[in-house]
Write a structure and sequence with these properties.
The protein has 568 residues and is of the alpha/beta class. The chain is 30% helix and 23% strand. The N and C termini lie far apart (63 Å).
C-alpha cells in the first residue's frame, strides 16, 4: 500500500532546492531552485491575469527547458492544465479548449489567438500568496479518442497523480541521481509519468524535442546518459534499428502497446531491467507493472497492480471470473480518475462491486490471471485500437470521415508497421480531398495515409460494415506512374522498397501513404547512412515524404557535405 498522506507533486518538487532539475534539447538547464522560483513568479503572474483556483488552463508550449516550469506554474496558481499540441489542427485545439472550459491558453513564442497569454511577453517579477494545492484538486485534463466521434476529457486529480509517481518511484527505486528523458508529447498520458516521477524524486528530466523523438539515431544520443527510459515498444524498435547499445545499469520501461517476447529479449540485452507497464488514461497512466525476466515463456504479462491499485477480471455483469478465464479488466484504487469532463453520463466509471465506497474504471480490455498471479492482456472487446502507442477509437475517425464521404477505417499491419487505412465509396471519390478534410480536423496519428476507393462497402446481415471483408490496401489506380529517373531517386526507391516490403516504388509515391512510420523512417535513414557515409536525419522524410522530393533533399545534403569538405 501507499504511505499516507502522499504529498502532491508541486509540494514534493518544492522540497528540492539543489541539483539540476531540467535540461532542454539545446542543453539549457534549470536547477531546482531556478525551477521553483520561475514557477512561483509565473504563477503570481497568472493570478494577476485572471487565472483563478479551479480553472483549467490550456498549455500550448515548445518542448524546451521551461516546459515543466510552465506546467508547475499552472498548478501553483491553483489551476489544472490542458495539454494542447502545437502540431494538432487549430480547429481541434479550439474545440478542446471550449469543451474543457479553458478561458486562458498559455503559449510561448508569439502564438496568436483569443485568450492566448504569451509568457515570453510578460514580466514575471511578481510575487503573491499562492493558493494551497490540495489532493482533491484537478491536476490536468487529458483528452482521449471517443467512440461516439467526440474526444473525451479525462479529469485527473493531484491525488491520482501523487499515487502514480509514488508507485512508479518505488518500483523503479528512483532518487536524486536519476536522469530520465521526457519523450512523449504532453497530449500522451505517459508524459505525466516520465516528467513528474523523476522530478518529485529530485532527479533530472531531459526534455526531448519532437524531431529527436522521431529519429532513432538522435534519440539514442539523447538517451545516452539516461538511467531510466520509458518508451512505447515501437520507439524501442526504432532505437535498436539505429544501433542503440543501451547501458547495463539502465531501467527500461515500456507500455502503450503489447510487448512481444522477441522485442523484450532485445531490450533486456541492452538494459539492466525491463518493466512492462499497463494502464489507461482513466486510471492515471499506469495501473499494473511487471518486471520482465529473460526467457519467460509465453506472452509478456502486464503484471500485477501497483501500490494502491486494484485489478479484477470480470464477466459482463461485473462478477469475478476464476484464474485462467478471459474477461474484462476492471481497475480500482488510487489511480481511478475523477471522471470525464462535462460528461457525467458516459459509461466507464462505476462503483467498485467489491470495495464499499470505491470506484472502478471499465477498461474494455480483455485479460486473464495467470497461475503466477500476473495479468495477461488479450486484446479489446470493441473497435478501439493502438497505433504507435496512441489510443484511437475508429468511431471518432469515421465520424469525421462521414462528414464528406461514406467509408470505414481500419488498421493494417502489426507492431511497428501498424497504420490506419481508410476505405471510401464510391470508386470516383476524391481521396486527396477526403484526407485533407480529416487532416484539418484530427491529429496526424488519427489520419489514414493509405486510402482505398470501393464501389460499395462490404456489409454484414445487420447492415454494419464487415471489416473482415475489407480488401488489403494496394497502390490504387493511377493515370500515370512516374518512374524514378535520377541516380538518387533510383537508390532511394530501392531502399524504400526493401524497407517497406514492396515490389516497386515510384517517384511520386508518398512514404507514409505506402505504410511508412517513424520506425521505417529510421531504417531508411540508417541504410542511407551506411551507403553514403552521411548523417541523414529522419526528419528529412517527414519534411519531404514524396520520393522525388526526398531524393532532391538528399542530393542537397550531399552537396552541402562536399562543399563543407572542400572549404575545410
Amino acid at each position: 500500500e501507499l504511505p499516507r498522506p502522499l504529498p502532491t507533486v508541486p509540494r514534493a518538487i518544492a522540497a528540492h532546492t539543489t541539483g539540476t532539475a531540467v535540461v532542454g534539447p539545446d542543453g539549457t538547464s534549470l536547477s531546482f531552485a531556478d525551477l521553483n522560483d520561475w514557477a512561483d513568479r509565473a504563477a503570481a503572474t497568472l493570478l494577476e491575469h485572471g487565472v483563478a483556483p479551479g480553472d483549467v488552463v490550456g498549455v500550448r508550449l515548445p518542448r524546451d527547458h521551461l516546459m515543466p516550469a510552465v506546467l508547475l506554474a499552472v498548478w501553483r496558481a491553483g489551476a489544472a492544465y490542458l495539454p494542447m499540441d502545437p502540431e494538432h489542427p487549430a480547429e481541434r485545439l479550439r474545440l478542446l479548449a471550449e469543451d474543457a472550459g479553458a478561458r486562458v491558453v498559455l503559449a510561448r513564442g508569439g502564438v496568436p489567438g483569443p485568450g492566448v497569454l504569451d509568457l515570453d511577453r510578460l514580466e514575471l517579477d511578481g510575487r503573491a500568496e499562492l493558493p494551497e494545492v490540495r489532493p482533491g484538486d484537478l491536476a490536468y485534463v487529458m483528452y482521449t479518442s471517443g467512440s461516439t466521434g467526440t474526444p473525451k476529457g479525462v479529469e485527473v486529480t493531484h491525488a491520482n497523480l501523487a499515487a502514480l509517481v509514488a508507485g512508479t518511484a518505488a518500483a523503479l527505486r528512483l532518487g536524486p541521481d536519476d536522469v530520465q528523458p521526457a519523450v512523449a508529447p504532453l497530449t500522451f498520458d505517459a508524459a505525466a509519468s516520465e516528467l513528474w516521477t523523476v522530478l518529485t524524486c529530485g532527479g533530472t528530466s531531459v526534455v526531448v524535442d519532437r524531431a529527436t523523438a522521431r529519429d532513432g539515431h538522435a534519440l539514442a544520443e539523447a538517451a545516452a546518459k539516461a538511467t531510466v527510459l520509458d518508451l512505447v515498444p515501437t520507439a524501442y524498435r526504432m532505437l535498436i534499428e539505429a544501433g542503440w547499445t543501451g547501458d547495463a545499469e539502465l531501467r527500461a520501461v515500456t507500455g502503450g502497446e503489447a510487448l512481444d517476447p522477441g522485442l523484450a529479449a532485445e531490450i533486456l540485452a541492452r538494459a539492466g531491467e525491463l518493466w512492462n507497464a499497463y494502464g489507461p488514461t482513466e486510471a492515471t497512466v499506469t495501473s499494473t507493472m511487471h518486471r520482465v525476466s529473460a526467457g519467460e515463456p509465453g506472452p509478456v504479462p502486464i503484471g500485477s497492480p501497483m501500490p494502491g491499485e486494484r485489478a479484477y477480471v470480470v464477466d459482463p455483469r461485473l462478477r469475478l471470473l476464476p484464474p485462467g478465464a478471459v474477461g474484462e479488466l476492471l481497475l480500482g484504487g488510487a489511480g481511478v480518475a475523477r471522471g470525464y469532463r462535462n460528461r457525467p453520463g458516459l459509461s466507464g466509471f462505476v462503483d467498485d462491486p467489491f470495495v464499499p465506497g470505491g470506484r472502478c474504471y471499465r477498461t474494455g480490455d480483455l485479460a486473464r490471471w495467470r497461475p503466477d498471479g500476473t495479468l495477461e492482456f488479450h486484446g479489446r472487446r470493441d473497435h478501439q485500437v493502438k497505433v504507435r502507442g496512441y489510443r484511437i477509437e475508429l468511431g471518432e475517425v469515421e465520424a469525421v470521415l462521414r462528414e464528406v464521404a461514406q467509408g470505414a477505417v481500419t488498421v493494417s499491419g502489426t507492431g511497428a508497421q501498424a497504420h490506419l487505412v481508410g476505405y471510401v465509396t464510391p470508386e470516383t471519390a476524391d481521396l486527396a480531398a477526403v484526407e485533407r478534410h480529416l487532416r484539418a480536423r484530427l491529429p496526424d496519428h488519427m489520419v489514414p495515409r493509405r486510402w482505398v476507393a470501393l464501389a460499395a462497402l462490404p456489409t454484414l446481415s445487420s447492415g454494419k460494415v464487415d471489416r473482415d471483408a475489407l480488401p488489403e490496401p494496394g497502390d490504387g489506380p493511377r493515370a500515370e506512374r512516374v518512374a524514378p529517373a535520377s541516380d538518387a531517386e533510383i537508390m532511394v526507391a530501392s531502399i524504400w522498397a526493401a524497407v517497406l516490403g514492396r515490389p516497386a516504388v515510384w517517384a511520386d509515391d508518398d512514404f507514409f501513404a505506402l505504410g511508412g512510420s517513424s520506425f521505417a523512417a529510421t531504417r531508411v535513414a540508417g541504410r542511407l547512412r551506411e551507403v553514403l557515409q552521411l548523417a541523414v536525419p529522419v526528419r528529412l522524410l517527414f519534411d519531404r515524404p514524396v520520393l522525388a522530393d526526398f531524393a532532391a533533399g538528399l542530393e542537397e545534403l550531399l552537396l552541402a557535405d562536399l562543399t563543407d569538405g572542400v572549404e575545410a
